[in-house]
Structure to design on (117 residues):
């Protein structure tokens, strides 16, 4: 674990979009990982947004082609968040939390994976 407080992601504003703003407000606008001079930013792919009665989820990808991706899941029934960092179909990191801040801190503190940046 890192010994500093990471810059936590900022969620979408509820008025960001007339139809999807409220539904996306549980998700970060982006995710950024850094270690020393290395940095990797992940951006939401709104085409991957799915939602049902129990969950909502959204995938994030780096701007450049990469085997890495992150999925953020909000479990509406119990109000919990989950993030999964993938390299292709292999889960490299998994974080859960009862608040947005808690899961985002765990996710960002987990840092970069080998070969990610």
């Amino acid at each position: 674990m890192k010994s500093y407080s990471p810059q936590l992601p900022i969620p979408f504003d509820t008025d960001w979009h007339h139809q999807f703003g409220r539904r996306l407000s549980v998700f970060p606008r982006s995710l950024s990982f850094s270690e020393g001079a290395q940095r990797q930013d992940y951006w939401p792919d709104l085409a991957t947004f799915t939602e049902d009665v129990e969950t909502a989820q959204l995938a994030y990808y780096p701007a450049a082609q990469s085997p890495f991706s992150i999925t953020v899941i909000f479990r509406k029934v119990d109000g919990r968040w989950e993030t999964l960092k993938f390299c292709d179909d292999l889960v490299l990191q998994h974080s859960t939390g009862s608040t947005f801040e808690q899961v985002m801190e765990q996710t960002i503190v987990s840092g970069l994976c080998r070969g990610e940046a």
